Amino acid sequence: MTVINAQSLDLTFQTADGPIQALKDVNLQINQGDFVSFIGPSGCGKTTFLRVIAALEHPTGGTVTVNGMTPDQARQARAYGYVFQAAGLYPWRTIGGNIRLPLEIMGYPKSEQADRMKNVLQLVDLEGFERKYPWQLSGGMQQRASIARALAFDADILLMDEPFGALDEIVRDHLNEQLLALWARTGKTIGFVTHSISEAVYLSTKIVVMSPRPGRITDVIESPLPKDRPLDIRDTPEFAALAHRVREGLRAGHSYD
Amino acid sequence: MRSIVPVLTVVAAIIGLWYAAVIPMNIKEALMQAERAGAEVTPASARDRRDAAALGLVMQNSFAIGATFDQDRPRLPAPHQVMAELWDTTIDKRITSRRSLVFHAWVTLSATSLGFAIGTGLGILLAVGIVHSRVMDLSVMPWAIVSQTIPIIAIAPMIIVVLYSIGVQGLLPKAIISAYLSFFPVVVGMVKGLRSPDAMQLDLLRTYSATKTQSFFKLRLPASMPYLFASLKIGIAASLVGAIVGELPTGAQSGLGARMLTGSYYGQTIQIWSALFAAAIVAAALVGLIGLIQRLTLRRMGVTA
Ligand SMILES: Nc1ncnc2c1ncn2[C@@H]1O[C@H](COP(=O)(O)OP(=O)(O)OP(=O)(O)O)[C@@H](O)[C@H]1O
Ligand SMILES: [Mg+2]
What's the pLDDT score for residue B305? Predict the structure, then answer.
């Protein structure tokens, strides 16, 4: 079932230096339960595309639907949780308080807030940290807490913009593994922006390769890897072949600038 | 403990300088008295002494140095004289007495507190308006800035006269002057604080479809607290200045400002200085109190360790 459907999407920013075409003729279908990675050089419109899906930007041409609705309606229907590059936890709230934030805003009753908070803390392996303040947690734990916050109201779609970009590789490996486990357990549809080829290949069922000026999709790769992926799958020839194809796609997009 | 040594060093240096300054400031008066008492003074003529350099007089008449610390109406009172007066007018007088500095400080403090409350409330309201409405941003801010460029000493009498003519007097006019001075730092700090959340923080709330009211109470307001407290410290000190200035043009009978004014009418420099010190002590206590509330609040909010 198609969850996100973009049809000939265009987005041009009007800036002081003239118009910038951030997205040009983008067509993409994302199905229920897909793990889709967006990869491409800086400025190719990955963030912009995710923000369009989340109704944080509005396209200047074409259409997007999320669960058959406009992005704005989908947001009202709590269709997605959004994870930003920085954890952005409120320093004046505990981890538990941060996770309750969307629940308070959406008007969940108190007891349900507590239950949901406990659940998602378990999902991201942060049980027992609910009374801690953000500054008492490492960067990786903070980012996990921000994922828990996005999961708290049980949206079907999780949009993540370079959530592990600021973390070191060892922590990142660990979080990637955990993210896969979480995805397997919850069956959510995930849109994931990254700069790392191996991260994209390791995580995704579908890899979207983009290129800049104007931002557009140059390749969409369906991953043949099995759903169950231990970390050492990265040493297999299938993995290497996939990574190679992504790298070629990135190079092709780059060739004429 | 480690911070007490530098502080005491500075205090000692100031007191030393002060005593040193007292000698030349008061030498002419001291010599006048010595002459009347029959002492030998150089130069002998009062006229010559008037035009002589103070330091020269001190050199030539070192016997009179002791007397400079002990004048009744010194040009510059010595530290111990101010302390003695402070002690006398605070500890030794009943606090209901008109001669008690505690009584006068209390009068000024009530105007300060009322003014500070009005100023802070007004400041916060204006800041909320400025942050949420472009029209207010464009229209209020310039006037708030202009209001602070007019010397308070010029505006205070007008406020008092205008309010007197409509029958308002006593505490309120002083409080209004004090509010006039204190609302500004609160507006500036609060606007900055309410705008401190970055685009990502605001986007996050948009993804929850949060209303403006929710964004305000969940994000903007708590984020503004550190800024607010910094402004409140400036605001409370400004409130005190406002209350004192408000006591000057009315010829008020009570309040620290009134003490300073009557002191200057009658050449009671010791009284002026002790009122000045009382004002400084009150200001320090108020700023300290705000600091304490800040620490407690921010700790309860979990922002600081
Ligand atoms: N709000 C905006 N106003 C004007 N231009 C914008 C805005 N947001 C993005 N752009 C421009 O749109 C283009 C795409 O930006 P976008 O942030 O989507 O790239 P990205 O692929 O996420 O890059 P990165 O990998 O560096 O995060 C860039 O040229 C950028 O300068
Ligand atoms: Mg980006």
Answer: 47
